[in-house]
Amino acid sequence: MNIYTYSGFNSEKQIFQESILAKDKNEFENYLKISDKKLMKLIKIKKFKKLKENDLKNFYLNIGRLLNAGISIKKAIEFQNDFVTDINLSVKYKRIYERLNLGEEIFKILKDEEMMTDAELLIAYVANNVGKISEGFLKISHLKEKKQNLKKEIQTALSYPLFILFISTVIIIFIFYLIVPNFISIYNSTQEKLPYLTKVIILFYNIASKYYHLIIIGFPILSFLIYKYFKKNSLLLKLPILKYFFLEKYIINILENLSLLLNSGLSIDKSIDIVLSSVENKYINQKFISLKNIKNGKNLSLILSNIKEFSQLEINMIKVGEESGKVSSMLEEIAKFRQDNLNIKIKIYLNLAEPILLLIVGLIISCFVVGLYLPILNMSEIIQI
User: Fold this and answer.
1) 144 contacts 64 by C-beta, under 8 angstroms
2) Do 167 and 293 have their domain in common?
3) 283 lies in the same domain as 346
4) pLDDT of 61-103, one tens digit each?
5) Where is 366: in which H helix or E strand?
6) Using CA atoms, how far apart are residues 240 and 217, in angstroms rounded to an integer?
7) Does the model's pTM come out above 0.85?
8) Model confidence over 107-126: pLDDT tens digits?
9) pLDDT tens digits along 351-375
10) Residue 176 host element (H or E)
11) Which residues, other chains included, contact 344 with Cβ-Cβ below 8 Å and sequence gap of 6+?
């Protein structure tokens, strides 16, 4: 997508300047024809930058508040655009407003414009069904704020361990390229048999010094390809520690979305169909495919009891919800409990990262020191004998 800034005149021969968002020049020219505007000068074409999470959070917050005040969605978008100074936001608001004028649905527009995820679309859809679209937008804003806060906490917690990792990497490179060569030249002048650890260090040095350019280029590329392969084949969900975090996040989303749909008045079988269709990960989809057995007359609590990730306490809570007719409330409570528990575990693992990282770095440096000085110690023992 590009931002086209141009000057022109309208049907009333008034000269103006504006910026619009278009996929290509053809779409830009079609816009001019539809709006009956004539191009005088194309000033500049700028690449559109994807909106930041904070911009989207503020968008949903402000629109939600304006809708609560009784303003229509179209008027709310127009009102917001009047106070926007960022060109990326301005052209986005303008595009949404124009599409609303053409009679398009707001949810379809926001999804097409990549301003709403599938989970957020579900929240807005449910809120609209119960006549509370403003609350839906405010909830999306609240969820984005929670996500941002968690991200900041993780970044803060990781800042010191990453600093240690950076300094340690510099020290290891310093040892590797400035100290190791001196020891190699000493050992090459002797006929003594070197210890295995020293041989390994020298071998790594020879490989790194000969193919350093390939390592610098290849390591990031290989890391990216491995990550993509793991993600594509759902292998991240099979790694011991990561499995818990990824799986737990998917389970929380399923429970929250199911609760939302039930609250909107949809039947439980229809809600399950919608929730499962929104889950893109094949591994997760297969894991929860048994939920469709609800159509065969089975209770939700009975189906979930066969999924090992659910505790007996959670099954009992859902069973109570089925008896009292408050399944959605119970699912929401379980989702909240799991989310709180997940946040606690994330913080615990992040706190453990620092000492573990220090231990690993200490072991690596110790191996270098021992490996380099071991032959010298052996020589001094021979001289004493």
Assistant:
1) no
2) yes
3) yes
4) 988 898 888 888 888 888 887 777 777 888 888 888 888 888 8
5) helix 327-384
6) 30
7) no
8) 888 888 888 887 788 778 77
9) 887 788 888 888 888 888 888 888 7
10) none
11) none
